[in-house]
Task: structure prediction
Amino acid sequence: MPDVLALPPEAAVEKEVLGKQGIKSLIVLPLYVSGKLAGFMGLDNVVNTGTWEKDDVSILRIAVNLIGMGIQRKRTEKAIHEGEEIYRSMFKNAANLILLVEKNGNIVDCNSRVGELLGYRRFELLGQPIRNLIFPDCLEKIKKSSEEVENRGFSFNKEYRMVRKDGKTVDVNVNSSGLKDENGFHVQTIYIVEDITERKKAEKLVKENESRYRSLFQNNRAVMLLLDPDTGNILDANSAACAFYGYPREKMLGLNIADINILPKEQILEELEQEKSRDINHFYFTHRLSNGVLRDVERYSYPILMGGKKLLYAIVSDITDNRKMQSELVRAKMEAEIASKAKSEFLASMSHELRTPLNSIIGFSDMLLTQNFGPLNKKQLRYVNNISVSGNHLLKLINGILDLSKVEAGKMELKVEEFSVLDSISEVKVLLTPLASKKDIQILSVVDKELTTIRADRTKFKQILYNLVDNAIKFTHEDGFVIVDARVEGDQAKIMVKDTGIGISKAGVKKIFQPFTQLENSEYGKQKGTGLGLSLVKKFVEMHTGKIWVESEFGEGSKFIFTIPLSLTIPLSLTIPLSLTIPLNPAN
Result:
């Protein structure tokens, strides 16, 4: 809108509001989030009227896109966090043991029930094959179960014997479900393991000795019923059954199985007739409690001879919560994975779209700064320089977003070669000397004569040094020093970057290597950056099987020290999965 006064009569109210604010002309663009209109953004001119330039529209469009991207990113991160929290809560608090197993059979996670059931601590099982927990006689059964999961997506009610840490065996019932990736390929399996030792003991005792039936039946914690297969009448029920169904024993013995099973009575009697001829029967039903609540149950039954008549001895287990939990676990994990994938795709696509116009803005502003197309006055130079600096900062942030999307692929390449430590330190000094000179900071280096060359990833070694020295310069007073000390310690190279800066508090030291962490202080405030530098340094050092730590006290400077092997004995090209690895280019 080049002239607010030219607004039509029907916009008189808007015209009056704009006039009171002294606005002569303006441009307005819509703000979209996930393809939906979320608001508007604009630029106004309070000096004069006139047509806006294309560059003004471009700058406003970039700002609108950045804000929309930020809002969408926050929404995506919130959805991921909520999905992960639901999944983790259900996983951690489940009543049964839950194992998460990779397709290759290795355990990648388990809940705290592993201690109660198998006697292991969680960390002792991570990375171990699940077959190590299965009794040898049951290995073929679990193999068939894995094939069912691969073909059907699930395998229910498989009974195994598992081996505890102390060598004892425990009887379990296992339900397993497959998890697929975004391409529909089976990648992991969730095993929900129920301890059925007590039930198995009960079954064994009943079969072995009918005379011990009464004591076992009444005192067992499992829900047990004695049924007449010809009529469906409940002839006996133990205390656990009366408590579960909510009836006193006298009332319970007057019921027919059709009073609690929601199937038609004719169908129930047909099933009971067939059960008489089988050694063991296994069914899933829905039973109605005395208060009308419906519960999913699993029922095993065995024919037994009592008083010359064949009856059915039934054991009932409530599986309502287990089924719900299993379904929720799978759903929550799938939602978290979908949200994470959507986030990565969104960040990558938006970042690529923004880089192209930004590169143009930076390129043209840098050309103007050369003044090859004509001189600029001081004010113009300042404005153009601000455009160049801000554009480069924004491009660096966008590159960080692209790198973050690459991280979620979970791989980083490590290339080992032999190189000179002194030359690498010198190259980093050359890169950072201009930055240090602005604060009259001297970068000094001391290299042990015995430390000539090492075998490591040369690029990442320089990135480690670059990050540590750059960080030291940021937090060092003017006329200060940054010292790089490199020496041999056993079969390790020990590198220390020491500064005369402000130091780090004890609380800051504890979280200094955490991703997205930026420490603040009253003198320097919050420094520019993504908060990923030191966490990347730690990852790079650990990739070399090294260690890194910091020694610092607030107000007395800091020492960042890391050690890596003098000769890294791994293949020349190695791909290593990381939970967080973002390539860092010192030139940026």
